[in-house]
Specification:
single chain, mainly alpha, two-stranded antiparallel ribbon, 4 strands, globular
Length: 282
């Protein structure tokens, strides 16, 4: 059987693991019962730490070489690409103003949050519900260029140098996606997130979320030096060819938390706002 077909089948099975939970959440969305989705979430697996759910045994490469390779590669890249970094920062400043760096809280190793750094590529424009307008309506001309060339990712090299991330690993996702992972998918957080990974070189934006997670878990279970080198080289090739880089295509999945919750973006924003208010008043 073709490898990609196997991935698709595994992804379909993975999606089915939490389907009962998903349907229950969706049915509660319009429920008038006193128990809310927030109450349901307080009892899910999110309350358990990753170490309680999964045990990841690091190989020799992970323990003694991977971090050193991250420091050397990210340090050299920052030096070599410093002219590109400077020109990009000035271009973003001229087109969007300050700040030039976009900071977003992401889930790191063991689900410990960290601030991911990227060059800004979009304007901060929202609708009446506080939901950002579609990317194409917010992206500037400079933003389109740096996204297509993946230049917007350059500041993330600082995250790698600091130890928040690795060169290769599952792509770190926003913290507000956290409540929507199925238990088996959380295993991707047992290692550091990466600038690139197995999912990124096998389709990136055209993969379903379940397919991405299958690739992520496959990587977590088979981390090797040669594997990382192959992923890095394949990433460079894809960036140069501009293959599955930058803009989401028409077949790309939407934001994960919207997709998994079964709500519209507006409904989800209102629900998250309600949840924060309840937590503040608790």
């Amino acid at each position: 059987m073709d490898k990609k077909k196997k991935i698709a089948i595994t992804a379909a099975v993975s999606a089915g693991v939490g389907v009962a939970s998903y349907r229950l959440r969706k049915s509660l969305k319009h429920s008038k019962d006193s128990e809310s989705i927030t109450d349901l979430d307080s009892n899910n697996t999110e309350s358990k730490s990753i170490s309680q759910v999964f045990s990841h045994t690091e190989c020799y490469y992970e323990k003694h070489i991977k971090r050193t390779m991250d420091i050397i590669c990210s340090g050299l890249a920052l030096v070599v690409l410093s002219p590109v970094f400077l020109v990009s920062a000035v271009a973003v400043w001229i087109s969007l103003g300050r700040p030039v760096i976009f900071v977003q809280e992401r889930l790191g190793k063991d689900e410990v949050p960290f601030n991911l750094l990227k060059f800004r590529s979009m304007k901060n424009v929202f609708d009446e519900y506080g939901v950002p307008l579609p990317d194409q309506k917010r992206r500037t001309r400079i933003g389109n260029i740096i996204r297509k060339l993946s230049i917007d990712e350059l500041p993330s090299l600082i995250n790698i140098l600091k130890g928040d991330m690795s060169i290769v690993g599952p792509r770190p996702l926003p913290t507000n996606y956290g409540p929507w992972f199925y238990e088996n998918e959380r295993k991707r957080h047992s290692v550091k997130g990466g600038l690139t990974g197995l999912a990124q070189i096998n389709g990136r934006n055209v993969l379903s979320w379940e397919e991405r997670f299958v690739y992520d878990l496959q990587y977590v279970d088979h981390i090797t030096f040669l594997g990382d080198v192959k992923i890095i080289l394949k990433t460079v090739e894809k960036v140069l060819k501009r293959s599955n880089i930058g803009e989401r295509g028409v077949n790309s999945p939407g934001d994960f938390h919207v997709y998994r919750s079964g709500m519209t973006e507006q409904e989800l924003v209102m629900w998250e706002k309600e949840k924060r208010e309840k937590e503040c008043n608790a």
